[in-house]
Design goal:
The protein has 241 residues and is an alpha/beta fold. It has one domain: TIM Barrel. The protein is built from eleven helices and eight strands. The structure holds cytidine-5'-monophosphate (C5P).
Length: 241
Amino acid sequence: MACDLILALDVPTREAAAPLLRQLRGSLRWVKIGLQMFTAYGPDYVRAVADEGYSIFLDLKLHDIPNTVAKAVESLAPLPIGMLTIHTSGGREMMTAARQAQEQSNPRLLLLGVTVLTSMDTAALHDTGVTSAADAQVSRLANLAAASGLRGLVCSPLEVPMLRSQLPAKIQLVTPGIRPAGDAGGDDQKRVMTPAEAARAGSSYIVVGRPILKAKDPAAVARAILAEITQNAEPSRPLSV
Ligand code: C5P
């Protein structure tokens, strides 16, 4: 199973991101722009990072009524993005509307359904009224997403073997919640694996933010993770959806 690294660009300013993007050009392909940078700089920043040669994963985790999410997907169509997230807990109708909008407005975009946030464990889910265990809830939402036409999911690497056994092989599994061996941790991620473990488990893409961004030499850590996943998975093929 092919696996590639996505750098989560969760930094406060474009000046903070610039040196890292410069150093990783040529070795890293995917950059994830999330709420922190998108709310600060908007679509122009997406275009600027794409112009540097990166493929863009826009992680907006859309979650609203079907019409609103579908219209947002249409509004994003002119942007050079390869992946976009919506929340699967928005339900079948919302995911179907989003998928239809994506097919019509941006056929090459991979729409990813976020299952259960990797910062949430079973106890945190119980607090919100979800009485299933985290893995059962991920399974339910992932199967609903596939039935609604989504071709990619965001989940914890711990759930990849379960989802690989339940879903068609063409479904792309994107996994945050990655912590390199020896990483001190101590942050909000609860359901975690190392890059090598996630690649071996069958992740299509691993998403890594703080272990790279907070390192003394972020580019070196990113390159070490790329080497680790290359050794533990087949080389990545270009995305075809
Ligand atoms: O810093 P860290 O490696 O924990 O970053 C993980 C990234 O993946 C963050 O940008 C976070 O928003 C994102 N993410 C996640 N869990 C999900 C979906 C996305 O951690 N289920």
